[in-house]
Amino acid sequence: MHNAAKTLLERTMKKQILALLAMAGAGLAQAHEGHGLPGASHWHATDAAWLLAAVAVAGLWLARRK
Fold first, then answer.
1. Phi-psi region at 64: left, alpha or beta (left = phi > 0; alpha = psi -120 to 50)
2. What is the CA radius of gyration of the chain?
3. Which own/partner contact pairs does 23-31 have at CB distance under 8 Å and 24+ positions apart?
4. What's the pLDDT score for residue 31?
5. Which site among 6, 14, 20, 21 is 20 to 30 Å from 56 CA-CA?
6. Whole-number Å distance between alpha carbons of 15 and 30
């Protein structure tokens, strides 16, 4: 396979894998009902912190250069 085509294929596959991981992890970052308050969903600060950390890691991973 030509080197340029191989590089393009690798980048495309990495983006697809990252998209799949982001979709799979989205359920973990959803607000939830709790503390005896039905219908009142809320976030905890740690929920938002983990979500921001995951976005930062993904951004750093995508921005890295060989």
1. beta
2. 18
3. 25/54, 29/54
4. 63
5. 6
6. 23
pLDDT, residue 62, reads: 83
**CA–CA separation, 24 vs 34, rounded Å?**
23
CA atoms in the 13 A half-sphere facing the CB of 34? 6
Give the list of residues 6+ apart from residue 34 with CB closer than 8 angstroms, or none: 42
CB of 33 closer than 8 Å to CB of 41:
yes
* Stretch (H or E) spanning 44: none
> What are 4-53's pLDDT values in tens digits?
777 888 888 888 887 887 777 666 666 666 666 677 777 777 777 888 88
